Protein: Tetratricopeptide (TPR) repeat protein
Amino acid sequence: MEQPSHVDDTGTDTPPSHLAALIDAALASHRTGQPRAAESLYRQALALDPANPRVLHYFGVLHYQRGDHETAARLMNEALRLDGDDAACWSNRGLVAAALGHAGEALACYEEALQRQPDFADAHNNCGVALQAQGAFGEAIEHYRQALASNPAMVDVHLNLGTALARLDRFDEALACYGNALSLDPQSAQAHFNAGNAHNARGHHQAAVVSFERALALRVDYVEAHINLGSLVGKRGDYAGAESHYRRAVALKPTPAHLVCLGGSLGAQGRLDEEEVFYRRALALDPNYADAHQNLAWLLLKRGDYRQGWAAFARRWRQSDYEALAIPGVAEWRGEPLAGRRLLVVGEQGFGDHFQFLRFARVLERLGATVDLCVCEPLLPLVERIPGVRRAFSGRPDFHYDSPYDFWVPMMSVPSCIGTELSTVPAQVPYLFATPKKIAAWRKRMGAAGQTQRKVGLVWAGSPTFGNDRYRSIALTELHRLGALDNTAWYALQKGPAHAQLADAPAAFGAHDFTAELASFEDTAALIMNLDLVVAVDTGVAHLAGALGKPVWLLLPANADWRWLETRCDSPWYPGMTLFRQTTLGDWTPVVEQVYEALRNGRR
Structure:
């Protein structure tokens, strides 16, 4: 985080001896942290010389440090009227302007200081801070470099330069700056903290952990370090460790954001009753805090309380996320009658969410709407064939004249608009359909292989960037027992980095690996239609198979997602789906044994 420089002092006035002694004593008291003594001495000096610019300047500085920025501005303005060549006063006046929220005036003051003293390191640093706040990172970096050219021992400037470089994703250079800061001040908790952020951004998570821990060793009440370390260890699957750091942050600073972090770490451990308390506390502080609404919604939906859950979910939006999705000039649909209305349904979040909620297109069409879909491009061929959809397209709609729509709605807000309950989830499948020609092509190819066994698709891992991926994905080695089944022919549906695990897997898992030929969801859907069953962890392919009407055995961690509820072994969303749940987080052995026995016995 950028920091303005310390108070500047380059004045050289030489007043009469008594006044000079008062001023020297005032400045000495000021510098040694004795503000009351300093104030008394400044007032005595001004009584002797009310027009002394140096006294006015630093008495203004004292007011600035106390938070009385209006008085500080008035005093410094008078000092500059009397001596407009004082670079230090111009620089400090800029700090006051920044504190008052006058960014343009602050920048102008720093520039005035630099016109009078081009090598003024503090003014260059302050100018860099002002430019950085405006997003002018390149110009800010140049000022920081000029400051260091004049005074390479300024720790704050090394930190600020590192921050600006990090904002431009120049993390190696940023780390070098933080290293320079630490060589000057090894006890700088902020330098360790900033280095932790840069290491984390580069994906060097262990180095980030070390840096955050060093920051906390130096400053135990460093709230931001507790939060960032908690988030980092939580993403690595250590939810108990995350909880510990979030609790410390909440004890120090119980903001809505920190309360939600703590609640999320409890929910990830399956402690739902404790989790809810912190979301409610966050909303008591800020009734519009979107993250609290979203996490509370997930909790309520997981419990099966769809009435309250969907209502909370409708308030999930951060402003920037909503604006990126909203359709300008079109009213958002909130449940008004749809007969004869034109409705645009806009997809959101991941592929699995799309596949799950596309079912509502048919419901909306039955309510009388003409339904169009705006979705991610990879989904277009599939969604164009959904019953109830007139047209599907990708990208932002561009209306040159009048909008062709009466309403738009985020796809996942539809349940809240129509009052969906557990008992009224539209579960008619299939509602996605593969291309008959592609289905036939796969049937011919698979038939030529002479397979007489049960054909089972397998997906064992999701995206590694997903927050709970450590627990929702399975290492293929943990499924090796399934490869020994004689009555099962495995078809790998696994894409992404986890596909490489096939190299060390039993031959049965790689015997029918067509993933290199699965260039689209259309291809995957057509292959799935030739399978008897899909065994998968919680990924988009599981939703795709369910929406195609295929039987799915879903392997769930103990901290499963909200949509699978808490204890059920079936799903109200997909009639052909069976849920196999962990009882202990991270322990897949009992789940694999259940799947093995079910396959061995030919269970459907």
About this structure: DSSP finds 29 helices and eleven strands in the chain.
